[in-house]
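Anyone able to model this chain together with zinc ion?
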Amino acid sequence: LNKLNLFIIACALFANMIFPQVLNQEKEKHYRETALKITREALTENVGYELLRELCEIGPRLSGSENSLKAIYWAEQKMKDMGFDSVWLQPVMVPHWDRGNIESAVIAGTGKELNISALGGSVPTPDEGITAEVLEVKNFEQLDSLKEKAKGKIIFFSRELDHGLVNTFAGYGGAVDQRSRGPIKAAAAGAVGVIIRSVTTLHDNVPHTGMTSYVDTLPKIPAAAVGNIDADFLSDALKKDPSLKVTLKLNCRTLPDALSYNVIGDIRGYEKPEEIILTGGHFDSWDAGCGAHDDGGGCIQALESIELFKRLNIKNKRTLRCVFFINEENGIKGAIEYARFSDSTKQNHYAAIESDRGVFTPKGFSFDADSALIQNVQKWLPVLRTAGIEYIRKGGSGVDISRIKNAKALIGYVPDDQRYMDVHHSANDTFESVHPREMQLGTAAIAILVYLIDLEGF
Ligand SMILES: [Zn+2]
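re: yes, here you go
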């Protein structure tokens, strides 16, 4: 940096302090009126919430399952019924793992059954199950230090997420390695099976599943999550009898890849139809509960947030596109296919917004964009506050949109996260766990952001 450059930067910073970027009063008044209209409509009509009810009645939507296809055709029809200008299904091959109908873990000689759920992608046990002693460890380092002792055993990874962290995603991130890489580490130590304490903030007995992984150079050993209460039980039982055995039985399996689809719907823009503002979520879910928060609700928010433009007769300059990506949970094949399509057909994405952190009370938006853009959009906060948005921050967007290369901003919708890990990837993720006002307010927040991006631009 030479002195002149430094001087220019200093002047720019100074100017920003004296003249913070604000909307002019007329504009702000007009935008706030529209934002109020959007928010009132979302809160009183509950259109998205009722759509989520219908979606949840179809059941869980694990990639490759019959239910997932039912849901995909349902969504296609809904977008058509809403009068979108074009609606299409984008074919993509997805992994097809099936849980089967046997999953049990019994403490030998006691009949005590632990409440478990096979981890996504797990191999099955032999028909008679695996009966082995259990070695409890808190982390990979401890496992490494006990190496010889792990041979022939079932490794019980029992570390809880850190309840002391305010951000539950950070807590999750600090404990989820047991699930995602536990079977690799355990196999490397010569173990024959894995049980992990569920990664959850709730102290109930519901097991939480999620993707696990293997490497081809090591034996693939079966793996399951156990509910928190039974994790405590097993831990206590091991203290009393370190040589106790557990019989683990799973008949899950990986089937050949299956044909599936991303669901895409466009509302064409009147002025710059080639510029796309995308809203989306992932349409697949885990197979317990119905994926109401993860991510059925996020998808419906993405859908309703642009459908509100039609319902309220708000004209959009740019094309609004809703995408339900398939297979985020165990492959991300939908996002990869959409990005490939986007690159090869030169789709012009102006911005993309993803909702995949649960459908709780709105907090903010996380922008993956350059700092000048983020500073500029801070002036929209007085309008976004209408739907409870408190901040716009620099940060990650979402797994599915993060592969889109040419957008000016990739944006993650951030709701309150305190209850998300209670339901995440488990039978707790039901329609009943969604509060209509919280979900609908989030929809309004996303719709208002789309409105501001479309009208103001970056
Ligand atoms: Zn998700």
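Residues 282, 294-295, 328, 356 surround zinc ion (CB under 6 Å).
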